[in-house]
Amino acid sequence: AEYHHAFQACSIDHSDTSPFRINLRSRGVLDCADCDKSSNVLRSTMSAVDGRVAQGAAALARGDWTGAREHFEASLEGEETTAALEGLSDALFWLEEIGPSIERRTRACLRYQEAGDACRAARAALWLAVSYFSALGNLAAGNGWLQRAERLLEDVGPCAERGWLVQLRGKM
User: Which of 22, 14, 16, 36 has the alpha carbon at shortest distance from 127?
Assistant: First the structure.
C-alpha cells in the first residue's frame, strides 16, 4: 500500500501478496528501479547472481516450474549460491518434490547463517516450517523451524521476517 505511488512505470503486479510473490520480491527477483525503498540493496544482490538464476527466477514468476528447475540446477552445477538453492527449492516444492525442496532450503538456511545474514536465514527457516506444516503435516519439525527463526531474529531489528513469524505463529 505505501509503495503504490511509485509503480506507474513498473510491469510487476505489486498488489499480489501471495507468499510466493512476497518471497520473490524479498529476494530481489521481482524488483524494479521504481519500487521498494530497499531496491538498491536488492539490485546489488541481483547483480551478483548469474544469468541462469535470473532465468530461473523469471520461470518461477511465470509458473514454469520445470523450466525454473532446469535453470537453477544448471546454475548450481557452476557454483552453489543461496539464490539458486532457494529458487530450486521453490521449483521443487511446486513440482511436489517436497523432500528435495526441503533439502535445498535447509542448505540455503545454513549458508545464510554461516554468512551472518540472520533475516534471510530466518526467512528460509519460516519457509521450511510452512513446508513441514502444509506439505508433510509434521508439526514437530515445523515448530522446530519456527523456533529457529525466532532465535535467528532475537537480535535483529524490525524486518519483514519478524512479521511473517508473528503471522505464522498466529495461525498455530
Answer: 22
pTM: predicted TM-score of the whole model, two decimal places: 0.71
Determine if residue 158 is left, alpha or beta; phi over 0 gives left, psi from -120 to 50 gives alpha, anything else beta.
beta
Q: Cell 535453470 belongs to which residue?
A: 71
- Determine the residue type at 98: I
Percent above pLDDT 90 for the chain? 61
Distance CA 128, CA 84 (A): 16
Give the pLDDT confidence of 49-105 residue by residue, as tens digits: 478 999 999 999 999 999 999 999 999 998 999 999 999 999 999 999 999 999 999
Q: Pick from 82, 97, 103, 92: which is nearest to 29 by CA?
A: 82
Residue whose grid cell is 540455503:
108
Residue 21: all three cell numbers together: 510473490
CA dist 25 and 86 (Å) reads 13
Residue identified by cell 548450481 is 76
Cα 143 to its chain centre, rounded Å, is 19
* Distance, CA of 44 to CA of 104 (rounded, Å): 23
Q: Report whether pLDDT(4) > 80.
A: no
